[in-house]
């Protein structure tokens, strides 16, 4: 077991040092100046083009996905219908609160 661990660690280190040896260093700086998938042109290294509206909507969707994962087992088990009803009411109230607060509005 120890021999396998040492052999795999040695292979990883050899591959790492080979990649560092053959790496072209001049392309590293140029890659940081290219456009990303979002289309923003990077003027400097700070992360200024960050949208808080996108973050809040992504966070709301993440919370709703987790709640959906919690709710799904109760859909098939009708003995716990009161728990399903409570979770659905909480999900509805959370959506209503986000909507009334204006967090779901998208501003340009």
UniProtKB/TrEMBL annotation:
GO molecular function list: NADH dehydrogenase (ubiquinone) activity
Catalytic activity field: a ubiquinone + NADH + 5 H(+)(in) = a ubiquinol + NAD(+) + 4 H(+)(out)
GO CC term, one of those recorded: mitochondrial membrane
Q: Which UniProt keywords apply?
A: Electron transport, Membrane, Mitochondrion, NAD, Respiratory chain, Translocase, Transmembrane, Transmembrane helix, Transport, Ubiquinone
Annotated localization: Membrane; Mitochondrion membrane
Indicate the transmembrane segments per the record.
6-23, 54-76, 82-100
Its membrane topology is listed as: Multi-pass membrane protein
Per the UniProt record, which EC number(s) apply here?
A: 7.1.1.2
Q: What class of enzyme is it?
A: translocase
Query: What is the purpose of this protein?
Result: Core subunit of the mitochondrial membrane respiratory chain NADH dehydrogenase (Complex I) which catalyzes electron transfer from NADH through the respiratory chain, using ubiquinone as an electron acceptor. Essential for the catalytic activity of complex I.
Family that this chain belongs to: Belongs to the complex I subunit 3 family.
> Which PANTHER family does this UniProt record tie to the protein?
NADH-UBIQUINONE OXIDOREDUCTASE CHAIN 3 (PTHR11058)
Please give the name of this protein.
NADH-ubiquinone oxidoreductase chain 3
């Amino acid at each position: 077991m120890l021999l396998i661990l040492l052999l795999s660690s040695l292979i990883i280190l050899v591959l790492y040092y080979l990649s560092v040896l053959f790496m072209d260093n001049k392309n590293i700086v140029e890659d940081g100046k290219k456009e990303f998938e979002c289309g923003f042109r990077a003027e400097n290294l700070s992360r200024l083009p960050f949208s808080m509206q996108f973050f809040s909507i992504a966070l709301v969707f993440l919370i709703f996905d987790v709640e959906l994962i919690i709710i799904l087992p109760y859909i098939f088990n009708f003995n716990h219908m009161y728990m399903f009803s409570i979770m659905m009411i909480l999900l509805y109230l959370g959506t209503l609160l986000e909507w009334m607060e204006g967090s779901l509005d998208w501003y340009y």
